[in-house]
Amino acid sequence: MEVKTSLLDNMIGVGDMVLLEPLSEDSFIANLRNRFDHNEIYTYIGSVVISMNPYRSLPIFTPEKVEEYRNRNFYELSPHIYALADEAYRSLRDQDKDQCILITGESGAGKTEASKLVMSYVAAVCGKGQEVNKVKEQLLQSNPVLEAFGNAKTVRNDNSSRFGKYMDIEFDFKGDPLGGVISNYLLEKSRVVKQPRGERNFHIFYQLLSGASDDTLKKLKLDRDFSKYNYLSLDSAAVNGLDDAANFRTVRNAMQIVGFMEDEVQSVLELVAAVLKLGNIEFKPESRCNGNDESRIKDKNDLKEMCELLGTEQTVLERAFSYRTVEAKQEKVCTTLNVAQAYYARDALAKNLYSRLFSWLVTRINESIKAAPKSRHKVMGVLDIYGFEIFEENSFEQFIINYCNEKLQQIFIELTLREEQEEYVREGIEWTNIEYFNNAIICDLIENHQNGILAMLDEECLRPGTVTDETFLDKLNTICAEHLHFESRLSKSSKFLTDHSLPHNCFRIQHYAGKVLYRAEGFVDKNNDLLYRDLSQAMYKANHSLMKQLFPEGNPAKVNLKRPPTAGFQFRHSVGTLMRNLQTKNPNYIRCIKPNDKKASHIFTDSLVCHQVRYLGLMENVRVRRAGYAFRQAYEPCLERYKMLCKRTWPHWRGPAREGVEVLMADLTVPTEEFSYGRSKVFIRNPRTLFSLEERRRQCLQDLATLIQKIYRGWKCRSHFLLLKKSQIVVAAWFRRYAQQNKYKRIKSATTVVQSYTRGWQARKLLRELKYQKRCEEAVTTISAYWHGTQVRREYRKFFRANAGKKIYNFTIQRIMQKYFLGLKSTMPSMSPIDKSWPVKPYLFLDGVHSDLRRIFHLWRCKKYRSEFTEEKKAVFEEKLEASEIFKDKKALYASSVSQPFMGDYLEISKNPKYQKLNSAMDEKVLLADVVNKINRANGKGTARIFLLTKNSVVLADQKTGQVKASVPLPDLTSVSVSTQSDGFFALKLKEGSASAIKGDFLLSSEHLIEIITKLHRTGATAADSEQLNIDISDEFLVQFKHDKVCVKFIQGGPKNGNSVSCKRKNNRLLEVSVPSTV
């Protein structure tokens, strides 16, 4: 059975802040601290997720957790970022609603990690496939590239994002990713030229110097020593936990996966190296004749190397650092730059070069990951952007960042209220207006096209004459003096004249998250963000592959005398586009909070968390969510959760779920003003009502658990008793059986004894009677025999003397023959035909009969033995018989061959793969296959040959190669010569004039000579067209070798010759074979 779970089960603190009771800032912070101390880093505000940075790894992001939250209701499990990601993904896939996930928080709060978790979860739960996996991998691998070029180490965060990122991930109708589009906002390019104490420049500079190979650094004209570059801070160059070398390899691999070509990667690294070289260029003053100072470059080596990297002329760039050309209509004015202006130009070029390179990287990644424009795609946007910033000194960057957060807060409140109102209308609940702080007045103060702060800043930057930060502040004091959310001591407002916390060169804006003091110094310059046209044109003239794309305004053919748009104007336009984009999507919010400034785990700083809770507007979020109904739940899970509180709904409710909830609420006597019934949900107004239900449910569950325990223990005891009872019955039955068996054995034993005595007495009595009866019968028989004998003798006495001798003789002979045959039957020899034993004759007169019986038995025994022969065995014995007729008493070797069976194929030529070729060359069945030695007449030495015998021919083949050396038809074979001794030599003599006799006869030697000659003799005898093969057995015979006849002579060898047969050539006409006498 599936286990029903809920957000309310095993809850530490309150999982959803909407249910927090009582609601105050202190209780809000205390609840966050309580959950943080128990490693619960996620908390809900309705559908908003609050994420606390734990500053350590927790076992809550495993693949098992992904499967646990997959396709689950948002409130079904404990709060988790995976629940929000799953809700957004399922709404996009199933309901065809475009989604956006807004991740906000200050630096170090974990925004970047949260965006990675969202993307990794979506990648894990969406479809599979080669193309889909490639798209997912490219989307995920875009993060390391952007982090390397856009993240840096700050005092608050070792991997702080110094730019805002919005990624639109596009999906098809099945929910599989097709691609994406990345938008970046306001890269902190001032970090390129200057970093605060304890912070670093962007990661890529340190990764390049630490992880690139020596050959790469040599090509880029760089050195690994950080101290040689002015743009790199040295006090925090090394960061604990950051391996720059390994991260550089990761970035290179990620760029390859995303789709960067090798030459593009090299071009990017060249520009990074050029920025480092640019920071090392220093200037010195040089007086001119008109009394003005002109800047000159001190050491031109770094300038030379930078120009080589960019492919531009050194003189062009050197002049751009010394002179500035101002064009107005048809006039051109060339002015010299002093040292301060030259340093400003150098830093401006470095900032623009890096920021434009970063924008090009984003564009290049978009080209790789963009989806094909086939049809409408579903879109999920992920916004990872800076949170509200309040520093000791706040400047232009903090101003526009806080402006962006004002806009996000505005859209958050609007969309949240709209979502609440739509749900109430959808459920048929009466909507009541909710009072909340509308920060539109603050947004209007900043972005109003006529009287807004950004509009006045642009107006100051564009107007002719002397423009300073003081003139800008004066303008603000004039126009915004009466605004409720603007404060300044120079506004001549009586209430701020004595406010010493407000310096004269500053102004203060009361944002939704609190008051922020901005220093006006630097607003005008940072908003202008000017790059001298001479430097733009110098960059455009460079031969580097990316320069013309990065500095299009430097094209001399397209000179634009209009001033470029200001930074504030561009950011306001980007934020407006972003807001319009977000309003078309269903929003999902992740609010990231940093628990402490020490970047340490298990530390919760109440004041710091309280500060973030305020500027993130989390209390405002809770109040908006609680303005109507604090809790709502569908009827089915509500009834499933609380049905045990009512006897009518427990354990099963058979009707509709809504009716069951109505019965449940009526039975619990919940006040009607505390809840309302929607079309598919029940709405609970006050958290106290929900907690009361939970408390009743907890108590009821305890009672049910007690009841279950009672029933279980009763069942367990009954089961144990029944088991004991059953065991007792079994034991008793076995014991009674054992006792009865023993009793039976005793009775049986006694009965047997009584029976034995009784039977003994009866048997003895019967024996006595039988003995008496036998003695009586013997006595009667004896008397009768004597009486009959007397009668017979009286009758035959007259004939007895005439025939007594003959009858006695015949009776005696008959008895002797009977005894002889009976004795012969018991002493009969075995059935083996070679068994020559026979019983000794007992009487001389039986000599003829005894011999005839021996012969008849032997013939009968041989017939029985022959009847058991198979055809194969019969053929073997026929061969043995023929060998006996040929060699017995003629050849000394024959005796040792009798016990050896004739095998025929000693080489297994049909099975051995070595002789496969030779076997395939034979057209007939091979009767015999053996290795023989062919004797050479020249020296008497033997050469191994394969001897094959078929029905029609004799074949000699090479033993190693299997090549046929000679083939002799059997009709060409006239005779075979062998010696009388125990050697294996034999000569095959060929018919004169035949084709086989050209090379002469064959003198061979074999261990199976008897079998070879026997089979030759039998085969030749059965061939229809051949004559009987002659077997010549002699110790001296002639052999024809080509044209000469050689005599082969066999002699007995002495002990000095050893035990082997040797053949030696004596002369041209004699071969002498020495045969040892011991063989």
Automatic annotation (TrEMBL):
Xref: InterPro entries: IQ_motif_EF-hand-BS, Kinesin_motor_dom_sf, Myosin_head_motor_dom-like, Myosin_TH1, MYSc_Myo1, P-loop_NTPase
Main location: cytoplasm
Subcellular localization(s) per the UniProt record: Cytoplasm, Cell cortex
Protein transport as UniProt keyword: no
Myosin motor domain sequence ranges: 12-698
Domain of life: Eukaryota
Any GO BP annotation: actin filament-based movement
Binding site for ATP: 105-112
GO cellular component: brush border; cell cortex; microvillus; myosin complex; plasma membrane
Region (Actin-binding): 575-597
Statement: the UniProt record of this protein carries the keyword ATP-binding: yes
CDD domains: MYSc_Myo1
Pfam families on file: IQ, Myosin_head, Myosin_TH1
Example of a GO MF term: ATP binding
This protein's UniProt keywords: Actin-binding, ATP-binding, Calmodulin-binding, Isopeptide bond, Motor protein, Myosin, Nucleotide-binding, Phosphoprotein, Repeat, Ubl conjugation
Domain TH1: 891-1077
Function, in words: Motor protein that may participate in process critical to neuronal development and function such as cell migration, neurite outgrowth and vesicular transport.
Family: Belongs to the TRAFAC class myosin-kinesin ATPase superfamily. Myosin family.
Protein's recorded name: Unconventional myosin-Ib
Gene name of the record: myo1b
